[in-house]
Each structure stands twice: as C-alpha cells, then as structure tokens.
C-alpha cells in the first residue's frame, strides 16, 4: 500500500471539523435508495460500481488530524469500498418491507470513521427475478449531492456501455484554484458582503430543549399531486423555487408570529467546467434573509426573494464556518445560523439499467440539527416532485410537525392558485382544518335575562330577603332595593335625566351609590363613578370630558364648576310624582375611565346588553345561586366592581358593600370577611397576598377569583392550602369585566404562570399577528376578543375607537387587547405580557413577559418583573425579584431556559411589587425605585445609636430590598399596602409591641417612624415584655400614600 498526502480543501475542512466534534453521530451521512423493476444483472452492476470507484480519488481518502495539523491520505491499491448483496426472495411482502427498512437504516445510521475508509457503502437486495433495491450511503466529506449524481450517472453509463463525456480533474488543479481564491480580491469582497450581512443580529428559531436530542429528526415526505405540480410549473419553472421559499416563510415564520426567516441554501460551488465534473465534495452553504413584507404582492415577494438569493449566490465561495469563527457571527442555542435548510434539487437520476428501470429516493440520517430542513427533489422523470420535510423535535413536537407539514402544503396550494397581485397579508397562513378547529373555541350565546327583571323577580318572590349589607351592618332587602330604585329614578327624572343622559357619582361606595347606579339605568341613562382617591386635576379632566347632566356627591368638595351638583341623600326623599317608566331598549349603561396611553384617562362605554350578557354568563360559569355572599372590594370606578355589586343581586344572593377606607387596614378587612363568611371573593394577586398575611380564615370550599395581572402558581398553592377553590380570571374593561374564567384544579410543574381560559358564553378569542392574520397554537401574537360583551366605544374619542376596535374577515366586531399570548393545545392561553412590553436590544426583539415567566418558574420566586433601563446610553434589562437573591443556582436556572441576550444584567431584590389602583404591577414605581437606589449597594444611611431604631432600619431594608433616605416616603421608595403590612408585622415581631393598623401610613418616613417608636418606648414602663400600642398624631402624607391607603 502506498500513500499520497495532501491538505484538505476548504469544503472538506468544514465537514471534518464539524464531524470531529461529534464522531459517533451519523449527522454527515448521506444516502439514497433505488427501487429497480426488471431484469437487473447484479454482477454487471457491481463491476460497474467497482470500476468507477477505482477511478475516482474521492473514494480512496482517509482524513487525519494530528500534532502536525489536518490532512488527508490517499490509499493506493487498497480495498476502499463496502459492498454486500442480500437474497430476500424468500420473504413475504410484509417481512420484505421490514427487512429493506432495517438494512436502509443500518447503513445510513451507522457512523463512518474518517480515518478508516471505506466511506461509501452499497447494499444490493434481490427480492425477486425482476425486483431489486440498491441502497447507498456515504460520508458527506467525499461526495455532496451533485457528486453522487455524477457518480450515479457514470455507473449507469458504465452498465449500459455508454462512453462517459466527463474528463478527470487533477487534484493539484483543484488545490491551486482554492489557493488562488483565498488570496484574491473576490475573497475580500465576499468577506465584506458577509460582514454586512451579519451586522444586524438574526432572531433565530429557538429550541424547546436546551441540549440536543439523540435522533432529533422527524421526517415527513410529501409527494405533490400532479394538479399542484402542474399549477406550479405554469407559474414558470424558474419561479418554483421562490414560490416554495415564500410558502416556507409564511409557514415557519409568519404563522409562528415571527418577523422574517433566514434560509440556509446549499450551493455546489462548482463554478468552472473542471469542478462541475468532479465526484467530490464542493458544496457549501449560502444564507438568505427573507425580507418579504405582508404589504407586498406575491409578485413583489418573489422578486425580493430572487434578488436576495442572487446576491448571496454571488458570494457562495466564502466558507460560512468563518462567519462564526472569525466574524463573530451569532448562532442559535444549538449552533445553527439559519432557521430553515432549503435544498432545491432538480438533478435527474436515470435509474434504467438495460431493460430495467426504477426510481430513487433520499434516505434520512435522523440527526439533522437544523430546526427545519426542506428538500424539493425532482429526481425522477415524468413524476411529480417529492418534498422531503425534516423537522427537528428539539424545536417542534410530533403534533406540531404534522400540523406544520399540512400548513405548508395548504399555503403552497393557495399560492399556486393565486393571482400574483394578491397581497401577502391576504394569504391564509392556517389550513382549513386549523381554522375549523379554532372556530370550535367559540362559545354559544344563550337567551339572557336582564338585571331589572331579576331584581323585580326576587323582590316579588323573596321580598324580605337581604340583598345588600353595608360595612356598618345595615341590611337592605330586595323589596327595599326595588322601591328605592324607583324613588331615586323619579327624582332623577325630575332633574331632566332621561335616555342617554350622563350622571357622575363622586362619593365613596355605599348602598346609596348602588341604588343611584341602578336608578340611572332604569331611565336608560349612563352613570360614571369618579373615585375620590385620585388627583383633583384628573377628576376635573373626567368631568370635563363627561359633561354630565348631574353630579352626585357627598360633603366632599367637588373638582367641577358644574352647577348641577347634588348631595346623594336628596334623591332618596319620597315624592308625590308618578313612578317613572323603565326604559326597555338598548342604552349606554355606564362609562368607566381608565388610564390612557397618552396619560389622559379615556372613557369606556358599556351598554346594558353587554352588562347583562356578562352577568348571565358569569353567574352560569361560577354556578352562583341565592346562597352566595360576595363582598365588594374593588373601587366602583374599576370594572370588576360590576361582578361584586350586581352578580349577587342577579341571582338573589347578598352583596357585602365595604367602604374603601376599610381596605386600608388588612386586619380590619380580615375581621369583616371572617364575620360575614363570603362564599366568593374577587381580588388582584397583590390583594390576595396581603390577605394571606392576616388572621383571615376563608370559609370551607369558598371561591377565590383572581385576576388583574399574571397569577403566580405559588399564590394558587397558598389559597388552595387554605381550602379555597381558585378561578383565574381575565378580561379588559373593553370586554365589560371578565371574558374568561378558568378553574384551577391542578397545577402544572412546568407552568410558572397560571394559564387563562374558559371563555364565557357569547365570547370569542383569537390570536392575531399585527396584520390581522389568525395565528395557530404556540405562536406568540396579540389576543383579540369579540362577542356580546364588547364595549361600544371610547367616549368622544373616535380615532382611538378606530384603532382599538375593528371588523375581521368574518365580519365580527373585534377588540385589540394589546396582550401578548399563545394559544395552548387545550384551548387555554399562556399570558406572556403586554404588547407595549416588547423591546429591542442589540437587534433582538424581546418579550419581557417571556423572561418574567421563566424567572417565576423558580420555586423560590413569588413575584418578578423585568424592565428596560438606559445606562451609559445603552439599553439593558433589569430584573426585580422577590424573596430570593441572584445566586449561582438562580443563574443556572435562567441559563437553562433563556439565551444570553434575554438574561437581565442586574437583579434587584424586593419583597413585593408596588401596585397601581387596579392592583396591577406599577412598573413606573419600579423604575423610580431603581433610580432612587444608592450608587453603591453597601452604602448605609446613618444608623441610630438606639437599638430599637436601628432595628427599624433593618426592617425597612428587609422589606424594600434596600435602605432609602431617612426622609423619603415609604411608598415613594417602592412600598405599597402589602409591603406596609409586612413592615408593620416585622417591626411588631422584632420589638414585641402592637402598632396601629395605619401606623405606616401615618408615619411614612424612616425618620418619623423611628422617632415615634423611640418616644413611645421611652415612656413605656417596661421595655421587653409588654405590648405597647404605638400610635402617632396624623401627619401629612404624599399623594402616593393617600392612593395606596385606599388601594388593597
């Protein structure tokens, strides 16, 4: 045996290095199987194969790496092929199929050893006198697809006695060509092109599994129908490739809620006559970024794809391994730098040996790392092409793979029949079966009762039954409620209130407010509760926008210049006027003002039919009956108060009206709840956490309705451990109240955030992309609502109404929620975050909610928020977490699920989040907290010499996560009502004293708190064992303190 040594060409080196990292994987095995029918002379065929192999250098190399470098050795006069024959003629058809499959898998899945040829295998299977299988497998380093096509053609010509037109290429010619390229101006231009290409980071598909699986490939072979093939061919042969690329983008990018896709396009790199005839590996990979926009027509999209492909093709010679190694090209988590490998193969394979003929198909090594690989193979003459789709199960599970395959063919079929003027956004990106399945989520609409019919019914059947209990213990029967509605309605009517009039209610929640709301609706007029707990400027703005006919208030000064202002007690005076008739048509029932994106509140108009649809549906969903007791905890200006006030009287039950001041003391609230034993309680996660810190004991099997923001599973566990049944609620004000209610019976160990779902009757939900295209399960998109509970409009804001409400392709009126979700297979939704919580950092589009969900999946974190801050003119992610520090274990937890660019650069430990008046996370307060933090975390405020006051400082630091300025208001430093309760309990525990329920609110700064405690402790006769009530004189509070006191 003689040996000739030479260096590796660029293309060989790329494959060698990749194989060297995973030598036991068949990832770089290629293969094909021919099925031959007719009289095949096996001996003659094997002689033809042996002859061609002997002539070609590619089959005689072994590839080595040692201390001197990487090189290949050519073995002369060696047996460097692996050929076996099998006689399967005695097998039954079923056993034959199994054996053919077994042998095919064996040779394609067995790894080659590069240092030990042969690197080509052939199995010849004789099944009968006129049926044969020829199974080939080879390592990619010796032949690419074109190389095997040439090899196959030469074997065919040899067998059939045809003189080959190909001339042999000398190895040194090829090596000289490589050397010339590497030192050429062409190479420098290629490098400049690729540097510009990777300047903007690419947002790749991310795997679900952090570590690659064994045998990750799921293969789906699709033989195109002749009809579809002919339609595509009629579009022009040159355009078929780009129609396929467009279908790939719509399927694997647009339908997944992504923006754009990166193709990996195999290229032969055979740019001259010599290389075109060489049986060898020259193939490389070119990258194409699809920049097709939904506003493009099909014609424009095809043109863009063609232009971008041509540009990349010009620079195909440059090895992409250098992009990673030298140009710092970023890859995904499994080192892939494209989303879809797309190979458009139209090389003919002639499988006619003498009088026999056959077909050839590719084999699958089951180990492709690409997220998706799609091969278009037009190899057999007069036969429709085969589309070989290989989907990586590290990215998509089996069900998703089947769905994506059908979706791709559905899109391709639609494109084949479409006019080229059709815009991309108008192309359905879901199959008909998916759309049909999606429609099954729609809930039926049943005939509904209206609120006043229900009140009259209960007044007639159970007149003395209690309908309302106020916080003072006063009870009001259904008969009393019905009578008062009529009296107040008559008095309102005497002031000119009629259909479409507007009444503003500016006083604290009580029985009189409830009656005034209903009396206003009795006349077909609308009411608007205006909370006392807000700046006068904001209240004035609401009054100005509302322009009410009447303002009803109490003794509080009203921030309005309107002359028609009345004290609420005036409307309850009996009169001799005739009873007013109830308006029975459709009317605007109420207008609630919510925070607007411009900072100014906007009014959401809800009709009586929307309200009544909601009450019917929610009572049915929760199985409410006349034994229920539901406390009204939310402000009347907050939409969820509709359920608390009206759902109980809708079913003949009791509503417990609590004044807002009661809720400023968690302990007082707990006492009232313990006293009345409510069956259903509705609150935000923050309010629930506050209640759980008191001595409140829920009634057995009572129901917790949790909504307003994402619900951590730790909270669910705590409530269930307390004996409650938990329902997760979702719905914006624009859908009346809740549009979904989902009972949480079991918790998933993989879901940090409880899913939302359980559509109410008459409601529908979709996931759309930004171009109003329906998205499938698992794709991130905006939650769109439709149905009978949608708001009428934004009051006097036509443009905002047009932006938020629209009519979809089905003719349904819809509302854009601005919430980013993904539909689950079970019909529920994963809540990811707000649309306005998307950000872009270093070119990456990031969903902050997705990061927050991963953080919350850690068992020791109960609350989390991620915000973007600008630091040194650079944007960066800051994480806020509760009850846990950023240690190595926590860091590993994040790294196991998130790419590096999605892991916050800094974490701030806080006890809990500041919340706004709706009980949701106050992200502005978190930003202010971050800005207020000392530059050096170890810096301490001047500590007191007194042990008690030093202890108070430590309590502040424990609860807030940092020690603030002694003069800073607790609530401005990041505190909220829940934290105030925690601080109070901590101080009481440490000092062995009892503080007043409003201690923190009355002493909101560290300095005043320390002084009051010090003064009280100094006058106390004992210091260590006595319980000392500490109470101070009322001190001025900040506006934020006033707001939080009313919050909880």
Plain-language structure description:
- Residues 1015-1029 have a biased composition (Polar residues).
- The protein has five domains: 2-172, Chloramphenicol acetyltransferase-like domain (Chloramphenicol Acetyltransferase); 186-431, Chloramphenicol Acetyltransferase (2-Layer Sandwich); 451-768, Rossmann fold (3-Layer(aba) Sandwich); 780-932, ANL, C-terminal domain (GMP Synthetase, Chain A, domain 3, 2-Layer Sandwich); 947-1045, Orthogonal Bundle (Non-ribosomal Peptide Synthetase Peptidyl Carrier Protein, Chain A), CATH 1.10.1200.
- α8 (240-252) packs across α10 (298-314) and α14 packs across α15.
- By secondary structure, it is an alpha/beta fold.
- It has a six-stranded mixed β-sheet, covered by helices on one side. A five-stranded mixed β-sheet has the order 5-6-7-2-12, covered by helices on one side. Strands 29, 30, 32, 33 and 34 form a five-stranded antiparallel β-sheet that branches.
- It is built from 31 helices and 41 strands.
CATH topology of the largest domain: Rossmann fold
Structural class label: alpha/beta
CATH structural class of the largest domain:
Alpha Beta
Q: Main sheet, how many strands, which sense, barrel?
A: 6 strands, mixed
Number of strands: 41
- Order the strands across the largest sheet as they lie in space: 8-14-13-11-9-10
User: What is the CATH superfamily label of the largest domain?
Assistant: ANL, N-terminal domain
CATH architectural name of the largest domain:
3-Layer(aba) Sandwich
Q: How does the overall form come out from the CA principal axes?
A: elongated
Helix content: 25-40%
Separation of the first and last Cα atoms: 88 Å
Gyration radius, to the nearest Å? 37 Å
What is the domain total for the residues? Answer: 5
**pLDDT averaged over residues:** 83
Sheet-strand content, in percent, reads 15-25%
- Give unreliable regions as ranges: 936-945, 1020-1048
The helix count comes to 31
- Report the oligomer: single chain
């Amino acid at each position: 045996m003689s040996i000739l040594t030479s260096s590796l060409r660029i293309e060989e080196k790329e494959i060698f290095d990749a194989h060297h990292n995973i030598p036991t994987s068949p990832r770089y095995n290629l293969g094909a199987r021919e099925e031959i029918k007719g009289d095949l002379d096996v001996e003659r065929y094997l002689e033809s194969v042996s002859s061609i192999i002997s002539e070609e250098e590619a089959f005689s190399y072994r590839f080595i790496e040692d201390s001197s470098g990487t090189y290949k050795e050519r073995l002369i006069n060696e047996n460097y092929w692996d050929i076996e024959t099998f006689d399967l003629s005695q097998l039954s058809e079923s056993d034959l199929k199994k054996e053919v499959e077994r042998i095919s898998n064996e040779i394609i899945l067995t790894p080659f050893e590069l240092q030990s040829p042969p690197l080509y295998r052939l199995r010849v299977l004789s099944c009968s006198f006129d049926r044969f299988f020829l199974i080939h497998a080879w390592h990619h380093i010796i032949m690419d697809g074109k190389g095997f096509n040439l090899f196959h053609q030469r074997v065919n010509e040899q067998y059939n006695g045809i003189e080959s037109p190909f001339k042999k290429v000398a190895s040194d010619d090829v090596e000289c060509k490589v050397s010339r390229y590497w030192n050429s101006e062409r190479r420098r231009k290629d490098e400049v092109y690729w540097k510009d290409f990777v300047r903007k980071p690419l947002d790749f598909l991310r795997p679900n599994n952090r570590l690659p699986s064994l045998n990750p490939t799921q293969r789906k072979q699709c033989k195109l129908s002749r009809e579809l093939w002919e339609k595509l061919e009629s579009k022009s042969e040159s355009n078929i490739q780009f129609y396929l690329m467009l279908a790939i983008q719509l399927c694997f990018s647009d339908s997944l809620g992504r923006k754009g896709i990166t193709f990996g396009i195999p290229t032969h790199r055979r740019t001259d006559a010599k290389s075109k005839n060489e049986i060898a590996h020259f193939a490389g990979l070119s990258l194409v970024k699809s920049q097709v926009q939904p506003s493009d027509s099909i014609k424009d999209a095809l043109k863009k794809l063609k232009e971008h492909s041509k540009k990349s093709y010009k620079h195909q010679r440059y090895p992409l391994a250098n992009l990673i190694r030298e140009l710092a090209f970023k890859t995904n988590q499994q080192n892939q730098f494209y989303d879809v490998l797309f190979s458009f193969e139209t090389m003919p394979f002639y499988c006619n040996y003498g009088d026999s003929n056959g077909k050839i198909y590719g084999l699958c090594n089951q180990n492709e790392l690409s997220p998706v690989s799609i091969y278009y193979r037009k190899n057999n003459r007069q036969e429709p092409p085969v589309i070989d789709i290989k989907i990586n199960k590290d990215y998509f599970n089996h069900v998703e793979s089947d769905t994506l395959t059908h979706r791709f063919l559905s899109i391709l079929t639609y494109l084949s029949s479409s006019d080229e003027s059709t815009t991309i956004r108008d192309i359905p990106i879901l199959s008909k079966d998916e759309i049909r399945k999606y429609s099954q989520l729609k809930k039926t609409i049943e005939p509904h009762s209206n609120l006043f019919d229900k009140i009259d019914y209960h007044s007639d059947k159970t007149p003395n039954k209690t309908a309302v209990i106020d916080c003072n213990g006063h009870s009001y029967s259904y008969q009393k409620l019905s009578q008062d509605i009529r009296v107040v309605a008559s008095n309102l009517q005497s002031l000119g209130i009629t259909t479409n009039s507007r009444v503003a209610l500016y006083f604290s929640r009580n029985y009189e407010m409830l009656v005034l709301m209903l009396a206003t609706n009795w006349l077909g007029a609308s009411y608007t509760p205006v909370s006392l707990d807000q700046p006068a400027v904001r209240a004035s703005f609401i009054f100005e926008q509302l322009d009410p006919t009447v303002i009803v208030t109490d003794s509080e000064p009203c921030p309005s210049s309107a002359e028609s202002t009345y004290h609420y007690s005036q409307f309850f005076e009996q009169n001799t006027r005739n009873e007013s008739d109830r308006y029975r048509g459709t009317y605007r029932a109420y207008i609630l003002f919510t925070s607007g994106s411009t900072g100014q509140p906007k009014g959401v108009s809800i009709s009586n039919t929307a309200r009544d649809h909601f009450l019917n549906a929610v009572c049915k969903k929760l199985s409410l009956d006349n034994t229920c007791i539901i406390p009204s905890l939310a402000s009347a200006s907050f939409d969820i108060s509709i359920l608390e006030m009206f759902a109980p009287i809708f079913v003949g039950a009791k509503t417990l009206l609590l004044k807002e001041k009661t809720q400023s003391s968690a302990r007082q609230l707990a006492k009232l709840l313990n006293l009345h034993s409510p069956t259903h309680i509705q609150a935000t996660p923050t309010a629930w956490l506050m209640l759980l810190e008191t001595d409140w004991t829920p009634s057995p099997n009572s129901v917790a309705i949790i909504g307003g923001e994402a619900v951590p599973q730790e909270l669910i566990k705590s409530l269930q451990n307390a004996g409650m049944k938990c329902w997760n609620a979702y719905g914006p004000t624009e859908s009346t109240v809740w549009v979904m209610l989902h009972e949480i019976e079991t918790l998933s160990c993989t879901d940090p955030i409880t899913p939302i779902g359980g559509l109410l009757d008459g409601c529908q939900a979709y996931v759309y992309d930004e171009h109003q295209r329906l998205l499938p399960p698992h794709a991130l998109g905006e939650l769109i609502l439709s149905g009978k509970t949608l708001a009428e409009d934004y009051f006097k804001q036509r443009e905002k109404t047009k932006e938020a409400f629209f009519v979809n392709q089905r003719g349904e009126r819809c509302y854009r929620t601005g919430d980013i979700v993904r539909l689950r297979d079970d019909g529920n939704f994963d809540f990811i975050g707000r649309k306005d919580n998307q950000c872009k950092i270093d070119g990456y589009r990031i969903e902050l909610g997705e990061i927050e969900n991963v953080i919350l999946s850690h068992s020791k974190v109960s609350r989390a928020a991620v915000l973007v801050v600008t630091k040194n003119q650079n944007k960066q992610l800051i994480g806020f977490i509760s009850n846990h520090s950023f240690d190595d274990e926590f860091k590993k937890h994040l790294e196991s699920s998130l790419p590096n660019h999605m892991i916050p650069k800094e974490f701030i430990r806080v006890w809990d989040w500041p919340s706004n008046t709706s009980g949701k996370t106050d992200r502005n307060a978190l930003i202010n907290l971050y800005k207020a933090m000392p530059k050096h975390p170890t810096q301490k405020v001047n500590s007191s010499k007194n042990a008690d006051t030093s202890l108070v400082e430590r309590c502040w630091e424990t609860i807030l996560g940092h020690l603030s300025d002694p003069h800073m208001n607790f609530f401005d430093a990041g505190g909220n009502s829940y934290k105030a309760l925690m601080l109070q309990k901590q101080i009481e525990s440490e000092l062995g004293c009892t503080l007043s329920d409003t201690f923190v609110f009355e002493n909101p700064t560290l300095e005043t708190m320390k002084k009051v405690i010090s003064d009280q402790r100094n006058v106390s006769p004992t210091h260590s064992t006595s319980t000392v009530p500490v109470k101070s004189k009322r001190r001025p509070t900040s506006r934020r303190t006033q707001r939080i006191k009313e919050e909880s």
